[in-house]
Amino acid sequence: xxxxxxxxxxxxxxxxxxxxxxxxxxxxxxxxxxxxxxxxxxxxxxxxxxxxxxxxxxxxxxxxxxxxxxxxxxxxxxxxxxxxxxxxxxxxxxxxxxxxxxxxxxxxxxxxxxxxxxxxxxxxxxxxxxxxxxxxxxxxxxxxxxxxxxxxxxxxxxxxxxxxxxxxxxxxxxxxxxxxxxxxxxxxxxxxxxxxxxxxxxxxxxxxxxxxxxxxxxxxxxxxxxxxxxxxxxxxxxxxxxxxxxxxxxxxxxxxxxxxxxxxxxxxxxxxxxxxxxxxxxxxxxxxxxxxxxxxxxxxxx
Amino acid sequence: xxxxxxxxxxxxxxxxxxxxxxxxxxxxxxxxxxxxxxxxxxxxxxxxxxxxxxxxxxxxxxxxxxxxxxxxxxxxxxxxxxxxxxxxxxxxxxxxxxxxxxxxxxxxxxxxxxxxxxxxxxxxxxxxxxxxxxxxxxxxxxxxxxxxxxxxxxxxxxxxxxxxxxxxxxxxxxxxxxxxxxxxxxxxxxxxxxxxxxxxxxxxxxxxxxxxxxxxxxxxxxxxxxxxxxxxxxxxxxxxxxxxxxxxxxxxxxxxxxxxx
Lengths: 302, 261
Description:
heterodimer, A: alpha/beta, Rossmann fold, Alpha-Beta Plaits, 2 domains, 4-stranded antiparallel sheet, 14 strands, 34% helix, B: mainly alpha, two-stranded antiparallel sheet
């Protein structure tokens, strides 16, 4: 049985349709990533799945409960890491967990032994009595993750869990999330970091303008949607070179002052670069970002 | 506005957890907080009560101090409920996003509002009850029926807490609240019989005064402190209860519109 099953989900604000017929199916024990540029409808989709807003059409089943009708029952077995930190600044780290557990009907006595373990999981064992405003951004995120686990949820939903964190803090969060998956929890996260999706997620849905435009494992998406090799070229005179490169690779794209050549065999591209010492180039395998940019376009989204 | 914003409240006993959250924060600052709520009405009461009282003598059949004391029990309750449901609730709703965190748990926004309303009413009760104790200590309240004023104070607290939460749902920032304070509460304070009997007002203004919740609160509390039951007691209590229920429902609809999108 699915942890989350969504069919034909729609939501409009005024004349603008933000979610336009989304289908999702998240299986137990997997890490599922919802990828998309800003404004793609990811956060709205999550809020709909949690029963916080009413859909205009479609059905949602979260942990076997119909949402929004029985959203409260469903949410009692879900943990949520919101996009913006909303830890309680009036409390210490420990108190944040104890107070949040009350919202699940969990008495402090029952939580007393769980809280130290949750803080340890978050790498905050030494900061149990610390006030929230003394914690770094990474610590706050980890505490928010620990808070999402107070009810020992089957599913953890995370909205951009590592946005705004430095690389060290991000790697620490990823390590913890992998640990949760190893413990058998199901994760659903949104992100616009391709590396995050590629490293963590078993399956990915790419969302754009309210629609799911591709779905599958990171490898299968790369194999299906993009040529396996990429050569990125930049430097003075790249425009003149680009005109010639068009014949050397099946797909040549430009973003800003960089040329991207996609091909199964990039030998002709590399040959045409020989002797062009003013051009810098990078030859690499195609990744999820290439798929993402191909499917959602290179225009800036605001 | 969507139809779902108008749905009947979906409450559970979990609202108690919201009340508890606020209680845990407040108990550390309880003494300065109560003093803060009381300083203003007490200074006014003793200043005006003794100063003006010496000039005015009696008012409404009692000493001016006793007259004013009863009014200030009601108005201190009103202001305590209002400050909590405007400024403090706005911090939790908008600045700290505490409410957003809570509704990700198995809580509804309705639970959150019920907990906040109960909490603001509790703080109002604390302020009103402290005023009652001080007034009684100075011998201006009959001991028996003054106790009966406690539940009335709570009802006044609920009505103004709910009204404050409705205003909170419309606020763009803290500045917004000064409109409500100066354009609604200050005139209400003047018109509701706190400082002088409503009968002194022109009859058209009296009609307005008698539609205000604070008027009905004062009308019940003042006779109780004298050891009497108010005429039309149940009507006064009914109006206060109606204000509480309608204001809470309006607060609910407006807050759903603001946050559930």
